[in-house]
Amino acid sequence: MFVIKGGSNVNNAREKDILELLHKQSPSSVQQLATHLKMSEVTVRRDLVDMEQKGLLVRKRGWAFLPGLGIEPLFNQRMKQNSDLKQRIAAYAADQVCEGEVIALDIGTTVTELARELLRKNNVTVFTFSFQAANILSQSNVNLYLVGGNLRKTEMSLVGSITRDTIMKFHFDRFFMGMAGLSKDNGPTDFNLEEAEIKRAFLERSKHVVALVDKTKIGVTSLVKICEFDEIDEIVTNEDPNSMHEQIPFRGKWTFV
């Protein structure tokens, strides 16, 4: 199985061949890929459509290229990837939330799964800048605050100075944080500068910071660094625990689900 940066697993032999070619030359045209792979352009286009839906590459006007550090796969694409892993992480995280707590929720697909798990909670206050999470929790018994600001439509998140200034008025028992990547050399990273700023505001105002990181994010680096390792209290993941301490220099609490 071939694994590329960004955490997506490639199970199809043709997809692997396409990605290997793009690692050598990105962008490449459909015609170039078809020639190298000795396949019809129709077949190549079909494969490229499927791969784009998985978030493996980006297509534009007859060309295909690997996503750069600043290219964020669509939310709906990410929701389909490793959903069982994300659900296990989310179930554990929800079980840690106690009655009467005030918690902050990040954006992202794993945190969206956590919002679903929180539907079974009562007497909990939730702050979030994610419309996705807020929409789910609107059907719950939790006391919900959606932090206002400028709407980032691709992720349905609220960002900017209004969002940050509002967060800085409050204190939180826990902040459940997602990320695009977690690597030894670059630490926790994410796709978007504005969203990273909001994460840092929640970090600053929270007693306990829990990073929810499915194993496809381990070893990955994205555009902007979120924080230092020592600003996180706990990392919840489903990676093999025997290899994690060597891969990631984190001295806080590891939880493997």
UniProtKB/TrEMBL annotation:
GO terms for molecular function: DNA binding; DNA-binding transcription factor activity. PROSITE patterns: HTH_DEOR_1, HTH_DEOR_2. Coiled coil: none annotated. Residues 11-66 form the HTH deoR-type domain. InterPro entries: Carb_Metab_HTH_regulators, DeoR-like_C, DeoR_HTH, NagB/RpiA_transferase-like, Tscrpt_reg_HTH_DeoR_CS, WH-like_DNA-bd_sf, WH_DNA-bd_sf. The keyword Zinc-finger does not apply. Keywords: DNA-binding, Transcription, Transcription regulation. Gene3D superfamilies: 3.40.50.1360, Winged helix-like DNA-binding domain superfamily/Winged helix DNA-binding domain. This is DeoR/GlpR transcriptional regulator. It comes from Cohnella cholangitidis.
